[in-house]
Amino acid sequence: MGDTVIKAQGVDLTFQTADGPIHALKDVDLDINRGEFVSFIGPSGCGKTTFLRSIAALETVTAGQISVNGMTPDQARKARAYGYVFQAPGLYPWRTIKGNIALPLEIMGFSREERAKRIAHVLELVELKNFGGKFPWQLSGGMQQRASIARALAFDADILLMDEPFGALDEIVRDRLNEALLTLWAKTQKTIGFVTHSIPEAVYLSTKIVVMSPRPGRITRVIESTLPRERPLEIRDSPEFIALAHEVREGLREGHSYD
Amino acid sequence: MTRVWRAALPIMTVLLVIIAIWYLGAIRMNATWERDQAARAGIELSLPELISKTMTQDRPILPTPHQVAVGLYDGLAGQAITSRRSLVWHGWITLSATLAGFGIGTVAGILLAVGIVHSRSMDQSVMPWAVASQTVPILAIAPMVIVVFASAGITGLLPKAVIAAWLSFFPVLVGMVKGLRTPDGMQLDQMKSWSASDSQQFWRLRLPSSLPYLFASLKVAIAAALVGTIVGELPAGATAGLGARLLSGSYYGQTVQIWSALFAAALLAAALVAIVGVIEKATLQRMGLAR
Questions:
Q1: How many angstroms separate the CA atoms of B26 and B47, rounded?
Q2: Can you tell me the ipTM of this complex?
């Protein structure tokens, strides 16, 4: 711990739109250390997704700077420093599940044997072991999103950025995947940035919860979790968990108080 | 079996109505000549006589369906296929130029679309010319193409194929530009997050995504290529091809020949479009893109 992998200093981002400029991010300062699980939570329009996209070099900040592994986001992307999971699965209908997971691996030039090994591994992680040969349309929406997570895990980047990945899943699958994600995180020591609008999800998963508020998008509170790293699902009934959830809820209310 | 009948019934009904109208029209149009002939010979024709005569003229203004059917059958099956009177022989001449032109047009359309999608300056410079090329009547362009090629000593298939390509590249271009641009922001971001190169993005995402649009365009393009080829066969006294059959038929007032050639061209076009349709269906179903 202590070693900073993602560092944002005075980040400002303004979108120029036909209706005038939109101030999406204002004065964002944040340090994310190696091995942390950081959740971004806030109402829509608070810039949580925009901030995640800026880290991934999918948006360019207007002022301030972000460094990822000591590089600019663009360099970090080229160095394949992170995997990104989008809100929708975005699987290609003409490729099987295996073929879809192979896609980034092909682009990154992994050998055939290496691809097969990695695909088998990540399919097991997301509990789709027997579905590798199926086409996306043969799977439920939830299974499709699991496949897309497997795809982001496949090339084993140090940083995993996830933009509301479980938003479309039913609660039972969601719980299982949250557990699986924690197991994976413990095993691989990855640094995870996770956008969500579910308070229990944020509290259950994170070591650090970043509460954001809109107009302009900014960070209102950074809550360090007091929960242990080892987290069975039952921990959600503990007083510690409930206190943290309460703190997050207060942070959200604070950001909203003026409108 | 009943399902087949249910599907066929409306089609058959419409077909029968068309044939009935056609017969009535043929009788009416051809009757003038028969009445003149009878008046000149000083004979009085009864109605049944008049009707039967209108259906058996050598050079009717409008040949009856059965005359066209006989002409078509004779042209397709009644001649040795190497004979100049065979519609199969003429059809093959037209088909080969059509396919060559369709091939050239498709390749040109796809290449231009790829250029347009990847280069802003091509987008602005090529598209207006492509649109302009289609506003010029093909009937005006065709003789010039034939003459220019002939002066360079090139005759036969190639000049016709160029005219066919002129008509068929356009739908392919428009369809492919649209098709190559179908991947949405998220899919492109995904590719970007993997630092995919432009060519990886093209082969793995843009090209497969564009196939439904490509096939829709190909169906239009192959029919357009056939029209282009036939138009290309009209000028400069072409002697072979369905277009030549149309032209010589109109020189000598052989209306049955004209109509037979027209129907042969229509059958050919329908067959070509159907073949593209079958390939389309099989491909898109396999790719999970069938809707």
A1: 15
A2: 0.84
